[in-house]
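Severity: low
Component: inverse-folding endpoint
Summary: output formatting inconsistent between runs
Steps to reproduce: submit the following structure tokens with default settings.
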């Protein structure tokens, strides 16, 4: 459903959000399933600013915060159980539709206003306020703009959170969505004096033993299809069980799929209890968000995801037939 708000310009929506923040007392913040650095970093930065403004804030993520992001200040305050009570505003980050955040309906019903902040072009504009900027490298970049508009001074801790959002969503300033403005914002964040080298170290040079072993499993499952244009990675429930690994240990494994020369798209299947989590990556114009959306997921052209019904083999067959047709 397309909300008429879509026609409102972004600055008006920013202003409406500022007014809402000023006039509200209690906030509920949520991000998408399988949360990433952008979702978590943006959530923590907003929560911190709201708290400094004297507001009550509850943070929610249905799936756990990935291990490599738990160093972020206040990451442990993010709960996986929907809070009780009413909220003046519910702010959803990076959710193309509310279902991307999990079972949010009960709490959204108890929220006076719903705010949708996103940079995914698949956004369904379901909020009372919609700040959707598909040209932004990350949601953290949009959040920085919000703070800037509000004349909010960003603390070192908040800067570390926003930087994490930007650096992870841009693949360390590598993906095409990285713009001069992205680098300018990163530069302003660095000016706060937070230890960005330490943050980079924790994000990119630290991995648990289980995570490394699981990466090994993912890499040894690598197959090439469609004449070398499609890379497929598959992780079975037994892989996790044998290694004592958890789903969040798979973060980034899919990116290795794009490495062999000639690969245009990569897909990773991860077997869950009764469902299969599917993540997609692509190069160039190949639109993965459309594929993910067809299965109730969402994302960007070059990075998307969804969860579909198992068993693994049936899910794999279904998705691979769509992808091989797309790549034919
Ligand atoms: Mn993002």
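Observed output (run 2 of 3):
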């Amino acid at each position: 459903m397309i909300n008429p708000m879509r026609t409102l310009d972004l600055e008006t929506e920013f202003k409406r959000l500022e007014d809402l923040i000023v006039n509200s007392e209690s906030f509920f913040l949520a991000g998408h399933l399988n949360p990433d650095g952008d979702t978590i970093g943006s959530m923590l930065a907003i929560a911190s600013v709201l708290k400094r403004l004297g507001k009550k804030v509850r943070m929610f993520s249905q799936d756990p915060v990935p291990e490599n992001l738990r160093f972020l200040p206040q990451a442990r305050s993010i709960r996986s159980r929907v809070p009780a009570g009413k909220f003046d505003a519910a702010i959803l980050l990076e959710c193309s539709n509310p279902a991307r955040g999990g079972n949010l309906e009960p709490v959204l019903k108890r929220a006076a206003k719903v705010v949708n902040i996103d940079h995914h072009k698949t956004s369904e504009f379901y909020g009372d306020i919609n700040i959707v900027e598909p040209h932004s490298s990350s949601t953290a970049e949009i959040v920085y703009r919000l703070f800037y508009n509000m004349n909010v001074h960003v603390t070192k801790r908040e800067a570390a959170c926003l930087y994490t959002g930007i650096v992870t969503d841009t693949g360390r300033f590598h993906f095409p969505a990285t713009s001069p403005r992205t680098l300018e914002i990163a530069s302003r964040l660095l000016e706060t004096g937070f230890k960005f080298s330490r943050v980079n170290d924790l994000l990119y040079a630290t991995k648990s033993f289980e995570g490394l072993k699981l990466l090994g499993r993912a890499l040894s499952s690598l197959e090439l299809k469609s004449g070398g244009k499609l890379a497929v990675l598959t992780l079975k429930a037994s892989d996790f069980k044998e290694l004592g690994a958890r789903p969040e240990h798979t973060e980034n494994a899919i990116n290795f799929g794009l490495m062999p020369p000639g690969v245009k798209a990569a897909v990773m299947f991860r077997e869950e209890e009764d469902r299969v989590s599917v993540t997609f990556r692509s190069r160039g114009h190949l639109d993965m968000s459309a594929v993910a959306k067809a299965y109730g997921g969402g994302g960007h052209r070059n990075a998307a995801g969804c969860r579909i019904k198992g068993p693994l083999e049936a899910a794999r067959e279904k998705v691979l037939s769509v992808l091989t047709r797309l790549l034919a």
